Amino acid sequence: MQLEYFTLGVLTFLMTGATCEETEVFAEAGSQAVLPCTFSPLSRFIPSIIWTKANKGTVWRKGKSGLQFWGSSWSQKGTQRVRCPHSQFENGDFSLQINNVREEDGGVYSCRAEHGDRVSEKVVTLRIIEVSVSSSVPTWGSYASISCNVTPWPHRASVQWTLNNIPFVPQTGTASRRETSKRVVKEKATARLTGNWTCVVGYKGKEGRASAAVTVNGIIEPSNDNTKVYAAVGSAVTLPCVFSSSMIPSGSVWEKLKPGFLIKPAPGRLPASFSASSPSSPLPSDKSASLREVRFEDEGKYRCSGAISGQRLTRQMQLVVAKIGSSITSKGSVTLTCHLTDTSEVTHYEWVHVAYDLNGNRSVGSLQKGKTLSINKVSEENRGDLACRFYGKDGMLGNVTHHIPLMSALSGQKSPGGSHNTAVVVGLGFLLLVLLLILAQMYKNHQRRKRIFQYPAMETIVHSVSNEREERERNHEKK
Fold first, then answer.
1. Which of 157, 158, 207, 235 lies 20 to 30 angstroms, CA to CA, from 382?
2. H helix or E strand, kind and range, residue 112
3. Angstrom distance (rounded) from CA 130 to CA 38
């Protein structure tokens, strides 16, 4: 590189009346590079212009006749990668445009303008910057190497890395003060490395940048170990375990880890309602599991795993179960308490009343903040669902609902609707009692007649005696 600068400098110095300026240009590989070359017009005639590259000869030139020529390496199948816009010639702008720049395009270029016996020259150093990844899609757990390459490399240039437009900080122990180490980021592939990487190079007041996207193959959901999944008692829940779409794991296994084993957790018994497949997604890369009905004792850590190309990938997650405990005081007030098996991520609680009208429309009204809700005056208005919502720093984590069928029965109070229903019930009961008495009397009469009809001779004797008695009484009255 120093030899190239020296050669151009000597040639420029030997030219009569020659002037020379140097410029730095950065361009990302694959983009368009513009090498500036402007001169103040000395006459109405356009000078002859020649662009050359050190050790590569002519790139482009325009003679006094106006004809243009391209170097053999810059024209392929009739298509030229370099050009100078004619519209700017009269303004003294002879900047060179290079399309789809490559690594080999980096180097020192010279723009020389000849105005009769006066020669003006400008030197431009084109530096091609490119970000490369050791493996375009590294596998989770393997080491990934992300490099920033600049051709030619500027000595004592500053290098900074950003990931998704945020300055990247290497993990402890991976950073080095050597200049060469700043060009390369080498870390274990995790979800932390996924995103758009940008290398920013600063040199002599100029700045160049190049970017590359990095995707880590592995378990993409959940993206980190010990992710918490929240569920209410009695509800269904999905434990996510989704691999990259291009990966089909073999020998997938689900385990519930026993508590108390910090270094190497031992597998325990899975819940009774556990299903090792999720009905929501038939994709072969989705190995999520589900619990049909969560119990409070189902809380704890779960682990899913699958083999990819002989390497077993695992992910741990924690199921946090929520429930509402209730208690009734002697005065009829109700106290509801929101219980979670793990509250490490919970920042605050909120109680809301959920009600439905005759049309099925749902309405939600906030009651109060806090883990515990006390209802002193219980009425028909409190009937419905009371939900405890729990929040973290990034928003709501989950909720659990408590259903209240009829709060007025707990307090001994009677609403107008309840009094009306009671009167109807009493009236119906009285009517039923009268009907039963009538039926009983009818049955009694029927039985009595039935007993008499069993002895017809006796009935005849009784009837004759009765007639004779009546006849004697009439005769006695006539005397």
1. 235
2. strand 107-115
3. 28
Q: Which two tokens stand for residue 23?
A: 């410029």
Sheet holding 395-404, edge to edge: 362-369, 348-356, 384-392, 395-404
Q: Reduce the DSSP state of residue 442 to 3 states and report it.
A: helix
Segment (H or E) for 445: helix 416-452
65 DSSP 8-state letter: T
Identify the pLDDT of residue 351. Answer: 93
Q: Give the number of C-alpha atoms closer than 13 A to the C-alpha of residue 350, restricted to the C-beta side.
A: 15
Distance CA 275, CA 268 (A): 15
Residue (of 80, 212, 73, 223) closest to 149 by Cα position: 212
CA–CA separation, 269 and 304 (whole Å)? 14
| Strands 118-133 vs 166-167: parallel, antiparallel or unpaired | unpaired
**Residue in the block written with tokens 């992710």:** 227
Angle of CA points 218, 257, 275, to nearest 5°: 70
Contact call for residues 291 and 275 (beta carbons, < 8 A): yes
Give me the half-sphere count of Cα atoms (radius 13 Å) on the Cβ side of residue 256: 17
Whole-number Å distance between alpha carbons of 97 and 66: 18
pLDDT digits (tens, 9 = 90+) for 124-171: 999 999 999 987 678 887 888 999 999 999 988 999 999 999 999 876
Neighbours of 407 (CB within 10 A): 20
Residues 54 and 280: their CA atoms lie apart, in Å, by 63
- As a whole number of angstroms, the distance between CA 317 and CA 323 comes to 20
Report d(CA 121, CA 99) in Å as an integer: 23
Give the DSSP per-residue string, 16-73.
TT-EEEEEEEEEETTS-EEE--B----SSSPPEEEEEETTTEEEEEE-TT--EEE-GG
Please give the structure tokens belonging to residue 288: 């999520």
Q: Go through 322-338 and write b for each residue having 16 or more CB atoms within 10 A of its CB, e for each that does not.
A: bbbeeeeeeebebebbb
Looking only at the bridges linking them, the beta strands covering 19-28 and 118-133 are parallel
